[in-house]
Amino acid sequence: MLEIMNQGGIIMYFILLLSLIATVIIVERLLFFRKIKIDEDKMMNRLKSTLEKGHFDEALSICENNPSPVTNLMKVGIEHRHYEDHTIKEVIMDAANLEIPKLEKFISALGTIAHIAPLLGLLGTVTGNIIAFGVLGRFGAMGNPALLAKGIAQALLTTAAGLIVAIPVIIFYNYLVSKVNHTIIRLENKVNELVLFLSTRNAEANPNEV
Q1: Hey, CA dihedral for 81, 87, 89, 93, is it positive or negative?
Q2: What is the DSSP secondary-structure string of 28-57?
């Protein structure tokens, strides 16, 4: 391994560093989404049942004990249940906007790595070819084979390393972006569902209000 790194030159160490950073980000994001994963429909029905009984403290406790973007929005909605409909929707939307950066955390950095890794591989290819042609130019066809081989190895190894890093990173990047987009869509649906439920309940609790 060390011999391969040395053959690839300093560019290989930069590519290795990017691969380590990408691995950390991917593992952290997968663990994050696993942590916040809940059965949203089941949780929503459970909270609705609790709220219909008027057990608001219990509903808040359920949200706190099952942290996720959806339960965080539910908690905000329950805490502002006595406000007007448009106010409830505004505070829930504000809370949803705070959840989005948490979902997208580090993903842009992962995309950057996916683009930089093959470019670094290409840079290594260029510098390796410069070394190889420099040997040929200096010594001619009968030049030092070791120096020539070193330049060619650097050219080939860095290209391969850049692609080896970039391909899985792109796959995970697209997966995580899709995961975030689907989560945001679900949040929007749950916001509307929650606002409608709280509005209906307020109307039932205050039938004389116009």
Answers
A1: negative
A2: HHHHHHHHT---HHHHHHHHHHHHHTT-HH
Pick from 204, 196, 195, 209: nearest CA to 80: 195
Residue 76 lies in a domain: yes
Q: What are phi and psi of 89, to 5 degrees?
A: -65, -40
What is the domain extent for residue 22?
2-124+162-201
67 found inside a domain: yes
Extract the tokens encoding 40.
């949203």
pLDDT in tens, the chain (210 residues): 666 666 667 888 899 999 999 999 999 999 998 888 877 778 778 887 887 787 888 888 888 888 888 888 888 888 887 777 778 778 888 888 888 888 899 999 999 999 999 999 888 888 777 766 665 556 554 455 665 666 676 678 888 889 999 999 999 999 999 999 988 888 778 777 777 777 776 666 555 544
Identify whether 134 is part of a domain: no
Nearest 5°: phi and psi at 207?
Answer: -65, -20
| pTM, full prediction | 0.76
DSSP string, 147-210: HHHHHHHHHHHHHHHHHHHHHHHHHHHHHHHHHHHHHHHHHHHHHHHHHHHHHHHHHHH-TT--
**Residue 166 belongs to some domain of the structure:** yes
How many folded domains does the chain comprise? 1
